[in-house]
Amino acid sequence: MADENTIETPDVALEAGDAGENQGRRGRGRGGNREGGDRGRGRGGRDDRRGGKQEEDDGIIEKLVHINRVSKTVKGGKRFGFAALVVVGDGQGRVGFGHGKAREVPEAITKATASARKKMIRVPLKEGRTLHHDGNGRFGAGKVTVRTAPPGTGIIAGGPMRAVFESLGVADVVTKSVGTSNPYNMIRATFDALADQTSPKSVAQRRGKKVADLLGRGGASAAEAEADAAAIAE
To answer: Would you state the torsion angle of the CA atoms of residues 112, 120, 173, 128, taken in this order, to the nearest 10 degrees?
Structure first.
């Protein structure tokens, strides 16, 4: 009996060890599958979040205008930094600009975009394609002139100013910039000119009159003034 016990005990121990090892393997397998499934769901979740961000950002135009690289000499070498200038707009009368600084270009662009979104302004547009009237803007040594244009003219502007009007949603405009080629000053001067833009509707509300009363001057008939007033949309 003692021999049988001594013989059977290791077998039971081996069987118990094998069972535990198999359970451990199965547990690891299940855990690995579950972990893999979680990872898969995690990737799907990130993709879904990315898709949601794209839907949220849909309609917002982002344009990178300028990137400036600066270096700082320190002990052991040079440290490089980047400054980004970004213009954003919805293409329907809202536009903004911002700049950001970081050690890497993507981070600088992200900071500039976030800053631009916070400082968006609304500009009234005539027929949804051009400005209501001419205007002048100035910042530092830079001077800009913006002029309304008939259909088919296009955006007659260069460099940073073109990015502003494309983001704003203007299709026909004529511009001129003198005094500076600094993109920061050019954009600030452009926004100074856009900030002075007004529409006949806002002027009529401020003066307590009808839009047709303002447009009826200059020899236009009452019917033509009413038609022009009905066609005006901010």
So the answer is: 140
In the numeric block, the tokens 């001077």 are attached to 143
SS3 39: helix
Q: How confident is the model at residue 177 (pLDDT cuts 50, 70, 90)?
A: very high
Cα–Cα distance list, 112 to 53, 105, 133 (Å):
18, 11, 30
Q: Is the pLDDT of residue 205 over 50?
A: yes
Question: Which pLDDT score, from 0 to 100, does residue 31 have?
Answer: 45
Residue 116, Cβ density class (10 Å: 0-12 exposed, 13-18 middle, ≥19 buried): buried
State pTM to two decimals.
Answer: 0.66
| Domain match, 12 and 126 both | no
Contacts with 58 (C-beta within 8 Å, 6 or more apart), sequence order: none
With respect to residue 168, please indicate whether it lies within any of the assigned structural domains.
yes
